[in-house]
Write a sequence for this structure.
């Protein structure tokens, strides 16, 4: 447990090492590790020693300057993470040094060793929570949980279909659906390791897993067997993967788009609108209104599953000192498919 450090002034944080960018552009050229001097700790602030923070696609897009709601420059990268309370301001009563806390998502600045922020931006969690799961719960798992709840009413025995099934959102969707007795049909990219990927997803609870090439048939629904036609589709890829997803949807089905990894447009035929009455919707967690209390309830629920070993997804921890290597892996330069999590 960390304690208040006597060799630092009571109202100042320790100096921090941070990943800072001073302009928008290619991530590997505009961001660099920089030492930040001590920051004053106001009465309602907490100083947090960061323990872990992921590299999300939104973090990269924000640095590139193509993401909405950009922070003022210069800025510290990173939109979610977990840390330990190092010092509390004089008016702070709900936190104590040593508490394990996660920060509100989409507030820039997680990629640094120490943070000073107003106490309301932090949420105390169970100290037995694995830090990699605590660091990554606020965006992807919460998105999976919300999309399964917000767009259609799903009941046991229903089915959903998704592409991007190997992503953290995809892995969480499979497991959360299984807990509720909902079937999942999953679309993955073709690769030499497709069979290995299928096996992993089935172990997580997937009912069906298909590569895109396997769906290059006239009547994809024949492949479902006894699995019901899905009422909900989750699209994070776009392009052909989205078109294939729509083919599975039942009459009146809904496709929700929450990402566009292929950077190709979503194309839906006129016949799918006229004869199948397909609905297309979008989901952006940052703008999907939810009370802070409800949001934190969902986080606690998901972390409870993680602590019990019931919610799992693949991550690759790397030291913050190897920041640029982790960044390259997150951008797919080394063939890694796992979420990169910076360990401080």
């Amino acid at each position: 447990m960390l304690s208040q450090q006597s060799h630092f002034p009571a109202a100042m944080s320790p100096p921090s090492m941070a990943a800072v960018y001073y302009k928008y552009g290619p991530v590997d050229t505009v961001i660099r590790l920089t030492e930040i001097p001590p920051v004053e700790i106001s009465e309602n602030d907490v100083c947090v020693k960061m323990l872990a923070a992921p590299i999300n696609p939104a973090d990269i897009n924000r640095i590139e300057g193509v993401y909405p709601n950009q922070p003022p420059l210069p800025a510290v990268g990173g939109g979610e993470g977990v840390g330990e309370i190092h010092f509390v301001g004089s008016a702070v009563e709900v936190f104590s040094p040593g508490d394990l806390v996660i920060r509100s998502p989409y507030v820039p600045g997680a990629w640094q060793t120490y943070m000073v922020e107003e106490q309301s931006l932090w949420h105390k969690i169970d100290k037995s929570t694995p830090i990699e799961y605590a660091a990554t719960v606020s965006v992807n798992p919460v998105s999976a949980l919300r999309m399964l709840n917000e767009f259609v009413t799903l009941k046991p025995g229903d089915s959903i279909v998704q592409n991007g099934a190997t992503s953290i959102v995809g892995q969480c969707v499979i497991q959360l659906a299984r807990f509720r007795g909902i079937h999942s049909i999953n679309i993955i990219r073709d690769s030499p390791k497709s069979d290995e990927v299928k096996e992993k997803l089935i172990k997580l609870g997937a009912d069906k897993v298909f590569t895109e090439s396997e769906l290059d048939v006239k009547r994809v629904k024949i492949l479902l067997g006894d699995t019901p036609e899905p009422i909900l589709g989750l699209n994070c890829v776009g392009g052909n993967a989205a078109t294939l997803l729509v083919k599975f949807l039942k009459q009146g089905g809904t496709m929700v788009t929450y990402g566009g990894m292929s950077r190709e447009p979503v194309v839906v035929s006129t016949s799918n609108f006229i004869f199948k009455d397909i609905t297309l919707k979008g989901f952006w967690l940052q703008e999907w209104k939810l009370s802070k209390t409800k949001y934190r309830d969902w986080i606690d629920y998901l972390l409870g599953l993680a602590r019990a070993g019931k919610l799992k997804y693949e991550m690759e921890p790397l030291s913050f000192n190897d920041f640029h290597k982790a960044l390259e892996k997150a951008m797919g330069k080394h063939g890694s498919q796992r979420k990169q999590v910076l360990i401080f």
User: Anything to note?
Assistant: The first strand starts at residue 16 and ends at 21. Residues 1-8 have pLDDT under 50 and may be disordered. The first helix runs from residue 27 to 30. The two ends are 16 Å apart (CA to CA).
